[in-house]
Amino acid sequence: MPDTPWLGVNYWSRAGGPRMWVDYDAETVAEELDTLVAHGLTTTRSFFFWPDFMPEPGRIDEAKVAAFTRFLDQHAERGIGTIPTFLVGHMSGENWDPSWRGGRDLYTDVWMVGRQSWFVREMVERLGAHQAIVGWLVSNEMPIYGRPETRGGPEDREAVSAWAELMITAVRAGGATQPVSLGDGAWGIEVTGADNGFHVRDIAPLVDFLGPHVYRMEDDQSRQFLTAAFICHLLDFAGRPVVLEEFGVTSAYVSDANAAHYYRQVLHSSLLAGARGWLAWNNTDYGHIADQDPYRHHAFELYFGLTDSDGRPKPALREVREFSRVLEAVDVGALRRPASDAALVVSSYLAQRHPLTPAADGPFVFRALRQAWIAAWAADLPLDLVRERDGITEGHRLYLVPSTKALLAPTWTRLEELAAGGATVYVSYCAGEHSWQRGPWWAEMNRIFGVEHQLRYGLVEPVEGEVELTVARAFGGLAAGERLTFTAAGTENSRSYLPVRPTDAEVLLADAQGRPALLRRRVGEGWMVLGTYPVEHFAAMTPGVNPEDTTRIYGALAAEAGVRTAASVADPLVHVEALVHPDGRRFLWVLSQHEDAVTAHVEITAGLVDAVTGEPVEPGRVPLDPFGVRVLQMTGEN
């Protein structure tokens, strides 16, 4: 990957959209590229519209190649790069086949795979030496193109992996030296919980970066702003740079002001979560070609642009420009997260489908983990993600295992070992969303947590309405008698709690009936902590819930465990997080999810200056615009 992160857009010209290569309008392209450069963008992602570029099984349309070469020249003239995408294929609500495909399977038909490989190699041989090309992508959202009805499944895994290897081999065979990835969207089981055949563990060894595509329709503002960041973080186990390859909003669904807020939040939160490249969808609106497919039948696709149909910048483009100034000021490619004292345990059920387990278990895990991640974000608690499948490593003071129905049996022994070594291990119960083998798939529950569970076979203990928990014993800054509230939500199976009787555990929180809701047992030098209510699952299933009181539990557990953070803000709608540079500089991000302007009171011992302007900022009074972000440099000792 390049030293300078990619900041750019997915690009079709407003003069033609996907058909822009048929009658290439160099003047309009020049205007569009000039606008992007003027706003600090460095990169485009471009597309070979496959039916036009390969009209016959053994022929490349050289006129289209000539148009694309002119496109590359125009990039080079402006000092920016592009990332061509080969197999397009799928685009904006329609699949576009070469006329000669004849229904052949894109993954398993040997001749068809050969034709794809040939096309990839031929295009690289023609264009790969051009200075404007900074990377390659094999496809655009191949799960939709390869399996339009199902989006793929576990039965495709072997074929998909072989197809991916052959396509990337073709890129290298053509002589390419630039970074390459698939363009699949990173929608597989390790990210979403749904298995579409594209496994990150299979793909990561083949590619140079991973590129999630994130377009979420949520029912909570925090989930809407932060899901892209969470997905970027979920990919860090693969050991490859993460480029947020597609994200954006259509003006058909959002006002200009709210689009700008969304861009600001997603850009900065994904940076904190590890992304080091951003390609917005997309550069322009297409109002002048509304009668052309796919826009004719997917009218909302007309308005995803950072400029309007006449090339005028929208407010979201100005947000990208401001972000580019931050990237330059902080040398973001070199920034790293400090070592974290807290970890979120990612169940192996978000890595694979275990034998005779329902497919719904994967998305169930995703939702609970995401909500836990958001609760930790609101508590200014940076997390490492540790995957059960890879082994839960030591070195953290706090481990969070949220709303969990199942872990592998040996994992419970491992969690107890970590507690014995001095860690605090928090696990909250959930019966699961469906009735198949409903209940805790836990090993040694009673002994490990110092309780006797009181479950009845085949039944759950239902919960309805508001759940009020009272602090029975002061801990981590929560005073005895303080109350926390949650709204029970989920299915008739998951909207339940775990009845227990303490035997060797102390009760920290009790419900309105006096029953234990949070208990801890001393294990060696640390603690095993049990939550009997699935508070993360409740929140994950509740619209408009954030911020919610799981944040208070996590903050108290972190305080008890001695988790260290660079700074904090008491307001759960303001997040602060630090990144460090190898040269010793330290930067602090302050992000607000308030819809009004606020002043954040940052608790920090270091001095602060604005990272871009250098102006001093008083830690106790950091002004933030609505949904605002400030990037500050820490000075002095902390």
Short description:
This protein has 16 helices and 31 strands.
Give structural notes:
- This protein has 16 helices and 31 strands.
- The two termini are 33 Å apart.
- The strands form eight sheets. It has a nine-stranded mixed beta sheet with strand order 13-12-14-15-24-23-22-18-19, with helices on both faces. Strands 7-6-3-2-1-11-9 form a seven-stranded parallel beta sheet. A five-stranded antiparallel beta sheet has the order 25-26-31-28-29, with helices on one face.
- With 638 residues, the protein is of the alpha/beta class.
- Helices cover 29% and strands 22% of the residues.
- The chain folds into three domains: 329 residues, TIM Barrel; 220 residues, Rossmann fold (3-Layer(aba) Sandwich), CATH 3.40.50.880; 62 residues, Immunoglobulin-like (Sandwich), CATH 2.60.40.1180.
- The mean pLDDT is 96.
- Helix 9 packs parallel to helix 10.
Structural class, by secondary structure, is alpha/beta
CATH architecture of the largest domain: Alpha-Beta Barrel
Question: How many domains make up the coordinates?
Answer: 3
**Radius of gyration based on Cα positions:** 26 Å
CATH topology of the largest domain: TIM Barrel
CATH homolog superfamily of the largest domain = Glycosidases
Spans where pLDDT lies below 50 across 5 or more residues:
none
Mean pLDDT comes to 96
The major beta sheet can be summarized as: 9 strands, mixed
Number of helices: 16
Which strands sit side by side, in order, in the main sheet? 13-12-14-15-24-23-22-18-19
Inertia-based shape: globular
Question: Helicity range of the residues?
Answer: 25-40%
What's the CATH class label of the largest domain?
Alpha Beta
Number of DSSP strands?
Answer: 31
Binned strand content: 15-25%
Span of the ends, CA to CA: 33 Å
